[in-house]
C-alpha cells in the first residue's frame, strides 16, 4: 500500500464531489473526498472545497501560477502541488515557499513519518485535550504571529475557520513584505 493510500485509510474522510478533478490531482482525489488525519493536524479539503477556495481568491497569495493548494497543516500553512508534481510548503505569515517533496507519495511518506514536525500534530492533540476537538475546517492560528515572536504553545493558539485564517495570513504577510528582520512592526487586522 502506498503512503498516500495509508493517509486516506487512517484519516477521517471529508466528503466531496469529483467533478472536474485535473489529471495531475487524481492520485490524491480519486474519490473527490478529503482527509483529516493526525488529530486534525492534516487537512486535505475535498477537491470541491479546495477548488472553491482557489476560485474565490482565498489562496492567490500562496500559490504560484498553475499550482494547486491541496492540504494544510494545523496552523493553516498550505501545501501546494505544482503541475510538475513537486510539493511545496508555504509559510502563510511570510509567503516563503519551500520545496517539501518531489511528489505526492514522497509528501505522504514525509508527513506520515513525522506528523509532529511536519504538521504540528503534537500541538493539535495537546490543544484539543485542553479545549475541544477541532472542527473539520478549523486551523489553530497564533494569537501572536510566530514570525513576530509568538510561541508554538497551546496558550498562543486559537481555533479559526480555514477561510478566515487564510484571510488573516494574507493581510499579515502583505504588511510584512519588504520588512527586514528585527524591525519593530505593528500589524493591523490580526484578530483571530
In short, what is this structure?
The protein has 192 residues and is an alpha+beta fold. It is 32% helix and 20% strand. The longest helix has 15 residues, at 162-176.
Q: How would you characterize this protein structure?
A:
With 192 residues, this protein is of the alpha+beta class. 32% of the residues lie in helices and 20% in strands. It contains 7 helices and 9 strands, in the order H-E-H-E-E-H-E-E-E-E-H-H-H-E-E-H. It has helices at 3-10, 26-29, 47-55, 104-113, 115-119, 121-130, 162-176; strands spanning 12-14, 34-37, 42-44, 68-72, 78-81, 87-90, 97-101, 138-142, 157-161. A 4-stranded antiparallel sheet has the order 4-5-6-7. Helix 1 crosses helix 4 (104-113). The longest helix is centred in the C-terminal third of the chain and has 15 residues, at 162-176. The radius of gyration is 16 Å and the shape is globular. The model has no long low-confidence stretch (mean pLDDT 88).
What are its keywords?
20% strand; 32% helix; alpha+beta; 192 residues; globular; 9 strands; 7 helices
The major sheet is characterized as:
4 strands, antiparallel
Report the oligomer. Answer: single chain
Helix content: 25-40%
Report the count of strand segments.
Answer: 9
What is the typical, i.e. mean, pLDDT? 88
The percentage of residues in β strands lies in 15-25%
Instruction: Name the helix and strand elements from N-terminus to C-terminus, one letter apiece.
Output: HEHEEHEEEEHHHEEH
What shape does the CA trace take?
Answer: globular
Number of helices: 7
Please state the CA-atom Rg, rounded to the nearest Å: 16 Å
Q: Strand order within the widest sheet?
A: 4-5-6-7
**Unreliably modeled segments:** none
First-to-last CA distance: 40 Å
Structural class: alpha+beta
Amino acid at each position: 500500500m502506498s503512503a498516500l493510500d495509508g493517509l486516506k485509510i487512517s484519516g477521517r474522510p471529508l466528503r466531496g464531489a469529483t467533478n472536474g478533478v485535473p489529471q495531475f490531482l487524481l492520485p490524491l482525489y480519486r474519490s473527490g473526498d478529503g482527509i483529516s488525519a493526525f488529530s486534525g493536524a492534516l487537512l486535505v479539503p475535498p477537491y470541491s472545497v479546495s477548488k472553491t477556495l482557489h476560485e474565490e481568491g482565498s489562496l492567490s497569495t500562496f500559490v504560484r501560477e498553475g499550482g494547486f493548494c491541496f492540504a494544510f497543516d494545523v496552523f493553516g500553512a498550505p501545501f501546494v502541488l505544482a503541475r510538475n508534481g513537486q510539493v511545496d510548503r508555504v509559510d502563510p505569515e511570510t509567503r516563503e515557499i519551500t520545496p517539501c517533496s518531489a511528489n505526492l507519495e514522497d509528501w505522504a511518506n514525509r508527513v506520515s513519518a513525522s506528523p509532529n514536525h511536519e504538521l504540528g500534530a503534537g500541538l493539535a492533540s495537546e490543544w484539543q485535550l485542553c479545549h475541544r476537538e477541532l472542527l473539520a475546517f478549523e486551523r489553530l492560528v497564533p494569537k501572536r504571529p510566530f514570525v513576530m515572536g509568538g510561541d508554538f504553545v497551546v496558550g498562543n493558539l486559537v481555533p479559526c475557520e480555514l477561510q478566515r485564517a487564510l484571510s488573516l495570513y494574507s493581510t499579515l504577510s502583505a504588511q510584512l513584505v519588504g520588512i527586514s528582520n528585527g524591525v519593530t512592526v505593528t500589524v493591523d487586522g490580526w484578530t483571530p
